[in-house]
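In the previous chapter we treated chains in isolation. Here, by contrast, the input contains two separate entities that must be folded as one system, with a combined length of 294 residues.
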Amino acid sequence: MTRKKTHQAGEGRCLDILRQLSAFIDDELPEDICAELRRHIGACPHCEVFIASLRDTVKLCRHHQPPPLSAHDRARLRQEIYRAWEPEARS
Amino acid sequence: MTRRRAPQSSEAFDKLYREHIDLVYRYAHRLCGEPESAKDLVQETFLNAYRGLKHFRGEARVSTWLYTIASRACLRMRRKRKGAPERELSLEEFIPTSDGEFRLQIPIDGLTPEQALENKELREALEQAIEKLPKKYRMTLVLRDMEGLSAGETGAIMGLSERAVKSRLHRARLFVRRELSGRGIAHDDRQSHDDWRPKEARS
């Protein structure tokens, strides 16, 4: 079995890759650069793990939902907004 | 969502409130990180929307208009409060300085993001990481990765070029990734998904 080449942390190519990872994840890079990045990532365990963790971060952000507003708070907020706005509306 | 002129009557405003309160509250909660400040921001947003109705020409989506009002109100509210000073995030600070740091990862393999977020500690860690972001980076991350807006829409809301949005978003993601993965769960030393505490707290 061939072992992937391991880079030293902070090695030049890895740093170039790191700068472009969001554009890579978001499919914003030209195809030739994507192919080059894929080749590097496939050969570099550091970058492979790093990009996986960045992708996971984005996935978690996309799926995180705050608790919804309760019906009580929705009605109360509406009343408070009206109360604050009415004097302005009349003037 | 359709593009249209903003409503002028209180009846039409009721409709606007009903249709957008959940969107505005969700956005406010993501920016503020807790419900009470989020409710204050919702009030401020709808009050400012009332005041600005006459200036709204329907060139943007109503939701984009409300996001813009909420974002500006949020920046004003936060300026009034004491808090950590705003700072720029540089790419250099996210460059791993050791092999171990390069290989740190977030333990959600085999789980969907929804399943992973059922873990309270992971969810709270994510929320804390987002809250620690300087506000202009947090706003960019929330609009792009949480509200799902395009770089162009985010730029229009924040008054930035697409290039600036992408640059901020990249730094914000790297910041959150480092906060989440820096909790001591390394690639070759995987713990149970239920145990999300830092290594030193597990012993």
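Residues 1-6 of chain A have pLDDT under 50 and may be disordered. Residues 52 and 67 of chain A are 28 Å apart (CA to CA). Compare these points with the single-chain example from earlier in the chapter.
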